[in-house]
Amino acid sequence: MFRCEAYAAPAHDKPLASLTIDRRDVTPEDVQIDILYCGVCHSDLHMARNEWGFSSYPVVPGHEIVGRVSKVGAAVTKFKEGDLVGVGCMVDSCRTCSNCQEGLEQYCEVGNIQTYGSPDKHLGGTTHGGYSKSIVVYEGFVLRISDKLDLAATAPLLCAGITTWSPLRHWKVGPGQKVGIVGLGGLGHMGVKFAHALGAHVVLFTTSASKVEDAKRLGANEVVISKNADEMAAHAQSFDFILDCVSAEHDMNAYLELLKRDGTLCLVGAPEKPMSVHAFPLLMARRRLAGSGIGGIAETQEMLDFCAEHGITSDVEVIDIKDINAAYERMLKSDVKYRFTIDMNSL
User: Fold this and answer.
1) Residues 6+ apart with CB under 8 A from 118
2) Residue 111, by phi and psi: left (phi above 0), alpha (psi -120 to 50) or beta?
3) What domains can you pick out in the chain, each with its CATH number?
4) Using CA atoms, how far apart are residues 93 and 95, in angstroms rounded to an integer?
5) CB distance 1 to 23 below 8 Å
6) Residues 4, 26, 300, 242, CA torsion sign
7) What is the rounded distance in angstroms from the CA atom of residue 167 to the CA atom of residue 174?
8) What's the CA gap between 240 and 222, in Å, rounded?
9) Rounded average pLDDT over 284-293
10) Residue 250, Cβ neighbours under 10 Å: how many?
11) Is residue 137 within 8 Å of 46, Cβ to Cβ?
């Protein structure tokens, strides 16, 4: 066991502050990583403030980690010291259930081990995330990062990227399809980039006219102001797939009406309150309402390789760790384009 500098929430109503935590020593199958950058996800804020009701303090957030390997265990075969690597939302799973065996560790039937906030089977207590100098992870949950990519802008791919990539790949989005992306935030801006790169005709839905220019810069072919009934009606029954990236309360039925027969509306945003879904938009055209979590390890590596090949990263604002509490407040106001990344050298 060794000591490690970190930044943590000591309680739900306290700001994040400096803290020294314990990390396990490297076991034969482990990789120790010096963290260079860590993306800031809205989940970090939810957990720091116990908004989901199951946080255990102190909370060291961070599951969008990019770093360099500093030590490997004797049995590690995939990585060596000096390699650029990433760690996303998971650091382990049962490895044996049917979902894990299929490479779908995100849906582990026992429950995967989250990068932070899960029971720590090595040290007790809960796992600590990437707002820290170093992390030790089983090699099967470590990802290879290309040196072609901007590392600070790569960090959010480990959550925001894979959250949007996974459903686009599962529903086989590609050339000849018309695809909608609802919301232009941390998730939505990656959805636009990926759908465009996969060859689809991309339509961005937003409530804000100020986002039209940015959406087109990111790859949208068209932008629809969702508050405008005429603009919405012009796209009725024309979409193969719509990815809903909005976590605020909104009318999903309006988007169901835009799908073709057998089209799919997939949720990756997580609104706090249950939302009403009308039966007839689903029944009358055999439409589907679905949801998707993050991706498995193999799929996340596929995404990272695709990003390296196509030069895709997140749009980020790089901050020092001392600015994290202010960044949380700005995130609540959507005052960032489109993700914060912490330069961990500032810790």
Assistant:
1) 91, 111, 112, 126, 127
2) left
3) 2-159+314-346 (3.90.180.10), 161-291 (3.40.50.720)
4) 5
5) yes
6) negative
7) 12
8) 15
9) 97
10) 18
11) no
Q: Which of 150, 212, 216, 162 is nearest to 186 (CA)?
A: 162
* Partners of residue 267 on adjacent β-strands: 244, 291
Q: Name the pairing type of β-strands 201-206 and 17-23.
A: unpaired
Q: How far is CA 153 from CA 65, 120, 287, in A?
A: 11, 29, 36
User: Residue holding tokens 């961990």?
Assistant: 344
Q: What is the DSSP letter of 126?
A: B
Q: What is the pLDDT of residues 87-121, one digit of tens each?
A: 999 999 999 999 999 999 999 999 999 999 999 99
Give the total residue count for the chain: 347
Neighbours of 73 (CB within 10 A): 17
Q: Which two tokens stand for residue 287?
A: 């439409």
Residue type, 237: Q
Confidence of residue 271 (pLDDT cuts 50, 70, 90): confident
Q: Quickly count: other Cβ atoms within 10 Å of residue 123's Cβ.
A: 14
d(Cα 181, Cα 235) in Å, to the nearest integer? Answer: 13
Euclidean distance between the first and the last CA atom of the chain, given in angstroms as a whole number: 20
pLDDT at residue 272 in the model: 79
Q: Are 88 and 159 in contact (CB under 8 A)?
A: yes
Quote the Cα angle for 241-43-85, to 5°.
85
Q: Average pLDDT over the chain, rounded to whole?
A: 97
Dist CA 32 CA 35 (whole Å): 9
Give the three-state DSSP class for 105.
Answer: helix
Q: What is the pTM of this model?
A: 0.96
* Rounded-to-integer distance, Cα 63 and Cα 48, Å: 13
What single letter denotes the amino acid at residue 15? P
CA distance 31 to 139: 6
Structure tokens at 337: 């384009």
Q: Where are the alpha helices (DSSP H) in the chain?
A: 42-48, 98-101, 151-154, 160-170, 186-197, 212-218, 229-233, 252-256, 279-283, 297-310, 324-332
pLDDT digits (tens, 9 = 90+) for 16-50: 999 999 999 999 999 999 999 999 999 999 999 99
